[in-house]
Design a protein that fits this description.
alpha+beta, Jelly Rolls, five-stranded antiparallel sheet, three-stranded antiparallel sheet, 3 helices, about 35% strand
Length: about 150
């Protein structure tokens, strides 16, 4: 079995943003030479997720409304009480809501590869979901197989 690991750089421009990285993942799979196996897409950040869904404008708005409703920005998060924290390792962002949103969606997705192609349907896209933008982030893509 062969394994190839590459990084994808994502630049978000808003606080919460769904960045379609499907084509970049396709490129990593193509460049790997792996024909049968799987690809793991992983966000090594605690305020970011990876998700697979339909890339449709109105649906993106629905996702945003749902996330803001389930985990409101203006709620009280203990994480945001910097003056009470003993470790003082925070970057100063009040982003407890971002960590909670990431916990709901998860940090990775795995997609099978057959005949050198991702087995996504025509309506599925892979998203890097940044809950604490705007910033530059890296996504790890690991292709494994033969």
């Amino acid at each position: 079995m062969k394994s190839v690991v590459k990084e994808i750089i994502v630049n978000s421009t808003t606080q919460i943003e769904f960045v379609d990285i499907t084509e970049k993942v396709h490129e990593v799979v193509d460049d790997s030479g792996i024909r049968e196996g799987h690809v793991l897409i992983f966000a090594p950040h605690t305020t970011m997720s990876i998700a697979i869904n339909h890339n449709e404008t109105m649906l993106m708005q629905d996702f945003m409304r749902m996330l803001y409703r389930v985990v409101p920005v203006d709620d009280q998060y203990s994480h945001d009480l910097f003056e009470l924290r003993r470790d003082r390792s925070s970057d100063g962002r009040s982003n407890g809501h971002s960590h909670c949103k990431s916990l709901l969606l998860g940090t990775n997705e795995m997609v099978p590869i057959s005949k050198g192609k991702l087995l996504l349907s025509s309506l599925q896209s892979i998203f890097a979901v940044d809950f604490d933008g705007a910033r530059e982030r890296n996504i790890v893509v690991q292709v494994a197989g033969v």
